[in-house]
Amino acid sequence: MKGNHYIFYTPEEQYPGMPHGEMCGDLMPFYWEGRYIFFFLYKYCIYATETRDFVHYTKARLVLQNGSPDEQDWHVATGSVCYANGKFYFYYTGFCEGNRNEEGKNEQAILRAISKDLYTWEKDKTFCFTPDINRFENLHWRDPQVFWNEERGTYSMLVTATTKYGDYLRNGCTAVYASDDVSEWRFDEVIYSPGIYPTHECQDAFKIGDKWYLVFSTYSKWWETRYRIAEHFSGMWETPLLDDMFDGREFYAAKTVTDGEKRYLVGWQAIRKDCRDENPFVWGGNVIVHELVQRNDGTLGVKLPDKIRSVFKRQIQLSYRRKDETSGEACFHEICGEGFCWRQIGNLSKTMLFEGVVSWKEGTQAVGLMLHTAGSRLEKWCQLRIEPYHGRIAMERYNQIDGEQMYVDERRIQFNKNEATVLLLVSGNIMLAYINDTALTTRCYSVSDGGIGIFVECGEMRWTKLALLKGEESDEHI
C-alpha cells in the first residue's frame, strides 16, 4: 500500500479519480511505552499504524481479520484497547448485516480479542456481548470504549445504543456497563440521552482537572465530533454555549489518547468522491491529530501538537514587509476603506506552516489569508477568513461560486482585543488552520501550491510575528 506516512496519515495514496473511498476510518488510539498506536478500520478489518511524533507513521499492519458472511464479525468495526490482568483486550464491534430482522440473531454485537504484545491478537470465541434488549433497541450496539474509571473504581464500557421508547432518530444514548476485572460486564446506567441524535458514535469519556468530558460523533446533519462537560461521570452533561465542536464538519469519529501528560484528539478528515470539490463526501480520510487545551471556563480548545510544530525549521523568505514603527520587527500593514485588498507575501510548496499574529481596527469586516493563489487576475484561490463581528472563521474557495454550496466551512469563535494568533498547516489538498485555540480543517482538490497572501475587507489590519516554514523533506502523498 502506498499511502501518506507524513503528518496526515492514510494507508492508500489519494489521487484524482480514485475509484473508492477506502481510507482511514474510526481511529482507535492507544498509548504504550512511548508509542501511539492508531488502530483503524480499513476494508472491513482493523489495521494499525504507529507513531512517536504524529509526523512519521509505520506502514499499516493487519490486526483483526473479518469473518465470513455467516459470522458475527463479517465486518469488523470500531472499539477500543485496554490493559488489564497483564494482557491487552480489544473490545470491538461485529457487524453482520445478514442478521438484521432475523429471529434470535443480532446485526451488531460487541466482541473481544486478546493479546500479550499488541501485535498478535486472538479472537475470544467465548465472548459475545449482544444487545441488552430489555433496556435498549436491538440495532445500534457498538463502539465499545473501555477504560479504568477512577471515580467509580471499576472498568467502564461506553456503548453506542438507542433507547426503546424515544422519538424516531432522536433516541441515541450513551449506555455504560461496568466490570471489576473485564471478565464479566453488568449494566451500570445511561449517562446521556438528550433526545437529539439518532446515535452517539465513537464515544470517549475522560477527566481533565475537576471536569469530565464526553466526546461523541453524530451524522444527523453533517459529520461532526462534539463534546459535553460535567462535574461527575454520571452528568449532568452540559453543552458548551458558543461551540461544542473541535473542528469543522469533515472531522469525524475522533477519540482521545494520553501519554500521562498531554491528551490528544485523533480523528479522520473526510475526502470527497473521486477527489473532486463538487462531489459528495465518502467515508474515511486522513488522520488529524489535535492537542486538547482546557480553557479557564472549562471548555476545550485545540492546538497543533508540539511534536508536529518542531519539524518545521526552515524559514522561507517573505516579500512585501516593512518595519513596525514601534517594535522595529517585520510587519504587514494594509488599509482598505471599502472593498477587498490583498498582497502576495510568499509561495507554497509541499508541506508548509504559516504563523502570525493579526490585529484589526474596530469596524473591520474581515481579515485573513489568501492561499493557493494563481493567475494574473487571481483566477484561483482559497481564503481563510476571520470575521470579528460575525464571531466566526471560515474557509472559502474560488470554485464555490457555481459549485457545491450545501454549507460553508466555518467555526464559531470569540475574539478579544481585536487580535488573533494564526497558524496554518498546508499540505497537498489539506488546509489545517488554528485561530487562537479553534481549529478548522478543510480541503481543496482543484488547486496546488501557488501563492500565499494577506487580505483585508473594509477596514485596516496589521500582521506581526510572521513566519513561513518548511518541513523536513518527505515522500508525502495527500
From TrEMBL:
Pfam annotation, one family: Glyco_hydro_32N
Entry EC number(s): 3.2.1.26
Entry superkingdom: Bacteria
Gene3D superfamilies per UniProt: Glycosyl hydrolase domain, family 43 (2.115.10.20)
Entry keywords, A to Z: Glycosidase, Hydrolase
One Gene Ontology MF term: beta-fructofuranosidase activity
Biological process, per Gene Ontology: carbohydrate metabolic process
Domain Glycosyl hydrolase family 32 N-terminal: 29-280
EC class name: hydrolase
Protein family according to the UniProt entry: Belongs to the glycosyl hydrolase 32 family.
The protein, known as: beta-fructofuranosidase
Organism expressing this protein natively: Mediterraneibacter hominis
